[in-house]
Write a structure and sequence with these properties.
Helix content: over 70%
Largest sheet: 2 strands, antiparallel
Strand order of the largest sheet: 1-2
Number of helices: 17
Distance between the termini: 27 Å
Radius of gyration: 22 Å
Structural class: mainly alpha
Shape: globular
Oligomer: single chain
Strand content: under 5%
Order of helices and strands: HHHHHHHEEHHHHHHHHHH
Amino acid sequence: LLTTDIAIGRKTGKSAIYAYETMRKKWKFLGVLTFLVPILIMTYYAVIGGWILKYITIYLLGSGEQAVDSNCFSNFISAPSSVWYSIAFMLLTSFIVYNGVEKGIERVSKFIMPVLLLMVVGIAVFSLTLKTTLEDGTVRTGLQGLAVYLTPDLSGITLERFLQIALDAMSQLFFSLSVSMGIMITYGSYVKKDVDLNKSVSQIELMDTGVAFLAGVMIIPAVFAFSGGDPNTLNAGPSLMFITIPKVFASMGLGTPIGILFFVLVLCAALTSSIALTESAVSTFQDELKWCRQKSTLVVGAIMIVLGSLSSLGYGPLACVKIIGMQFLDFFDFLTNSVMMPIAAIATCLLISRVIGLKKIEDEVVLGEGTFKRKKIFNFMIKYLCPIFAAIILLSSVANAFGWISM
């Protein structure tokens, strides 16, 4: 799917809506679907970006003691003032996109990405060197935490639990690689014809997986070493980042500097994603309405701020408003990751394998001096496995959301 999105973008030189329309006029609806996905994702992604900004502020303005309070996070997200941090994050993203691909996105990315990678590697190495002695004299180390991270624990794994883990992994993969949401089509439209697409896709895969692995090395050993080895503290989600980790930093005796470094790192990572999401929507406005970048950015930014405010206030003043039992943030997450993106993936597979033919994608990949070493597995995946996987995500997520099954 990643290969397909980038190839479609480079072949057509257009953003999502026009790209699909160029491939087949009747399939413009698929472009509209993938255009809506990043806008809806950004409505809750900006909220999480706002949470990160809040914690950077806490560490900059104080000693980090406020962040250690278990009620700090819940009190913040339930307060109406939390919306201003989300708006600030959206404005920062819009400012970068407003300045264009070269002066804005490329310039910021060239700075952020190397710094981000160095910070991840540095904190990961530091995490492995940590050691703490518990009250009973037991010594916990970062290396022991690394063993916990790398050793599969199959206890308690049922078929139902395994399916849930697999579905979560596939959903995360869609989001992490930005497939079926128009982003890679947009970025692909900027790729020059002499670039080896096969090599580029491989680099994206390796970097995405590598940084994700390092993020685990950075977090899990540190939490393990300073939590007494209690596996229950290793739960995922906001509680790990905004409640457990600040306590770990405080336990190190370096709460403020490490806290600032960590949350600035997370902010950099969040910005790279929010820039991609916003750029995808902005480029579509430029293509579809023939607007200039600046006007498109202002309109897209305004739409995202309005919808994002709903997500931000959904844990506070609007907590009583729910859609199929979900807060606004959770509903937008479900709608995009579990419904719209799988549908877009299935439709893309059908378009490529049944309508326009696989050869058009193959020809684009091998353009110039490019090679397509994974041609056979690509064809098999697009024809069979990808649509099956996407359909499983779609059907199981919808069934679970409506209570037809419990996972």
